[in-house]
C-alpha cells in the first residue's frame, strides 16, 4: 500500500471511527426515544477554522430552538481545529425537512463554500433500539 493510499485509508477510518463513537455515545440518550438522527461532519480549510466556527456556533444555537428539534449539538474535534461534527435528533423526518428550507440554512450555505476544505457529509439514521 503506497503512503498516499495509507493516508487516505487512515483518514477514512478516522472519520468512520468518530461517527461510530458519536453514535455509540448517544445510544444511551437515544434508547427508548424515537426520532430521526443526523450526524454531520464539516471541515474547514486550515486557515479558515475561526471563520467556520463563527458561522456554525450561532447557526447551531438557532437550529436547536427550531420546532421539531430535540437535540442539536455542535462539537469540534479536540486537536483538530476546524473539524466539526453535529449530532442532531429531530422529532421526525418532516421536522428535519422543515429545517433544511429555513432562511438560516439558505443564508449559511453560500457562506460555507469558501471556508470548507471538502464538501460536508451527513449520515441520516433511524434508531433501531429503544422506543
- Identify the overall geometry: globular
Task: Please give the largest β-sheet.
Answer: 4 strands, antiparallel
Number of helices: 4
* Helix content estimate: 40-55%
Portion of residues in beta strands equals 15-25%
Strand-and-helix sequence, N→C? HEHEEHHE
Strands, total number: 4
Rounded to the nearest angstrom, the distance between the terminal CA atoms is: 45 Å
Flag low-confidence runs.
4-10
* Mean of all residue-level pLDDT scores: 83
- Strand order, sheet with most strands: 2-3-1-4
**What's the Cα radius of gyration?**
16 Å
Structural class: alpha+beta
Structure description:
The structure is a single chain. The chain has 131 residues and is α+β, with helices and mostly antiparallel strands. The longest helix is centred in the N-terminal third of the chain and has 28 residues. Strands 2-3-1-4 form a 4-stranded antiparallel β-sheet, sandwiched between helices. The protein is built from 4 helices and 4 strands; from the N terminus they run αβαββααβ. Strand 2 and strand 3 form a beta hairpin.
